[in-house]
Amino acid sequence: ENYLLGVGRADCTGPVAEIPLMGYANPDQVGSGLLTRLYSRAFIVADLNDSRRVVFVSADIGMVSQRLRLEVLKKLKSKYGELYRQDNVILSGTHTHSGPGGYFQYTLFWITSKGLIRPSLNAIVNGIVKSIDIAHQNMKRGRLFINRGVVENSQINRSPFSYLENPASERSRYSSNTDKEMVLLKMVDGNGQELGLISWFAVHPVSMNNTNHLVNSDNVGYASYLFEQEKNKGMLPGEGSFVAAFASSNLGDVSPNTKGPFCVNTGDSCDNPQSTCPVGGATMCMAMGPGNDMFDSTRIIGQNIYLKAKELYDKASQEVTGPLSSAHQWVNMSDVSVELNATHTVKTCKPALGHSFAAGTTDGVGAFNFTQGSVEGDPFWDGIRDQLLGQPSNETKACHKPKPILFSTGEMTWPHPWHPDIVDVQIAAIGSLAVVAVPGEFTTMSGRRLREAVKREFDSYGAPRMDVVIAGLCNVYTHYITTYEEYQVQRYEAASTIYGPHTLSAYIQLYRGLAKAIATNTVQDLPRGPEPPFFNISNLTLVPPLIADRAPAKKTFGDVLQEVRQQYRESEVAEVTFVGANPRNSAENGTEHNFLTVERYASTSVSWHVVQTDASWDTRFYWTKGFLGRSNVTIEWHIPCGTEPGTYRIRYFGHYKKKLPSSHVVSIPFEGASSAFEVTTP
């Protein structure tokens, strides 16, 4: 054994209704149900004398925000003192675009996620901390193994015309315009018992498109689900001790929608530099996944990723050994001087977004028109809009050239700054593995340059043969990081490179500094940098307030409105509709409320046994809001092939809000059940 290892998993789903989903920046994409739960997965590595620790967390969320990180670290400090700190805790988001938003303190992100939504933020903070608690409580002696391999048929570059701007001499060193390599870290304890794994692979979890309203963890979440179901035999999804994280990497220009972009209206390809269609323009250009629909595509891509991970896991033999160390700095990214060479110094800029930001990508067309009636006449949101229309200063314009500036966010400060200036840079070294934690989405070539620079730095300071892996969407969200050459053509990724054309060069300089400090054992001499702000924001949101729920006349909550059929075959869909109540009531009662079960009757014990919950990818929970507090819930069970024949039923669990005569509002639990139905052999 070389290390003490701990793994943990905890629910971080949050409210599944009325909260905008984070990722596509589409204000109409609001949650109204659940396909699968979201989890935080934590991994702790300590050396045997327990003098040093490293924590890596991958959470099924769009990205880690600065607010989220600051709150998690505050909680860890009050629980564990100086054990888990800024330098040795990496928080990474998988980048699913189907998780609840509203957990950001910078104003720009309020626009599409309707403000700062405390229940959403709290669920993620608590889930991350709980996953670390579980890992902390289960530390055992163990060993680490690393493996790497190529994943086929799972990605395309969604900005190939930008990629082609990189020098031909550089491109000729690579066989593909995406990084197809998966890096996998396998954990086993001293008795050879399997603990878990972390996989890093560069792909956008956008198999589920922006028409989806069900909370879920997308393709990489499906890969985690398959691996954990395989290892935690006989357990329900989300239960069992084996933890499999499929973490993000340099996925900035990488899409899972492998059929490429087509015009939704005509079926023609729109793989052109503007991603635009002859009829309907750019809004009609959408990339298609390999499946017949987005659910199918999610499974196909997720399964590809899982199968490669399984193969790499089974064959992993290269052991990771050596000391642990970690380095972290806060940096004012709007003001970094970069020495390109002995004579030439350039600077980063105050944050700003270019015109193509509003256009979106072929994975999700832009919907950023902030003139919709819902905010007219509200003085707060009017103030927001007035700033959006403000002009950038000449200095910012010049700094960002050739970017045409749409929003000069670095010059917008009301009611708080619109974008971060203070950004985290961080590296953790676990023996020969260096995890480079980056605050956003590096494109394929940006990631290659960063990895190479960090590796070279380790080499030149006496730490050769390091495996360098990029962990994406860590610690604070700063959008995209393109190369200087990609920046010149100003597609979406370049328009969203917020600190200007030299952003990547600045990061390379900073991460080289961290790598040198780790290699020369001088981490303690690194300046901490300027502390990020923590804005005093209570619940500031456009999410509608929770009102008392109402059931239709002569019915009560949980009553069946539309019954199941009496009989189904596998691969059919069993469906039942109930008198429902707002699912947010349940989220506010406890983080891990399960909305549904599929149960099988066992005649031997004369009892019902739970075979699926709302965490299963085979169940879908839809909430439909009616008028004046009325709502319906529809539950679908997509009966998988190989389901044991027998008698089944579907149950629904919710809470309704009721106003007492004292006008105090309480949440009252209720449940409903379908009739029994048969699943027969095909």
Automatic annotation (TrEMBL):
GO BP terms in the entry: ceramide catabolic process; long-chain fatty acid biosynthetic process; sphingosine biosynthetic process
Keyword Transcription: no
Annotated Neutral/alkaline non-lysosomal ceramidase C-terminal domain residues: 512-679
Enzyme class: hydrolase
Reaction it catalyzes: an N-acylsphing-4-enine + H2O = sphing-4-enine + a fatty acid
Residue ranges occupied by any Neutral/alkaline non-lysosomal ceramidase N-terminal domain in the UniProt entry: 3-509
Protein keywords: Hydrolase, Lipid metabolism, Metal-binding, Sphingolipid metabolism, Zinc
Pfam families (alphabetical): Ceramidase_alk, Ceramidse_alk_C
Cofactor(s) demanded: Zn(2+)
Residues given in the record as Zn(2+) binding sites: H95, H204, E441, Y480
Cofactor remark from the record: Binds 1 zinc ion per subunit.
GO cellular component: cytoplasm; extracellular region; plasma membrane
Superkingdom field: Eukaryota
Documented EC number(s): 3.5.1.23
Family under the similarity heading: Belongs to the neutral ceramidase family.
The protein's name: Neutral ceramidase
Gene source species: Cochlearius cochlearius (Boat-billed heron)
Gene that produces this protein: Asah2
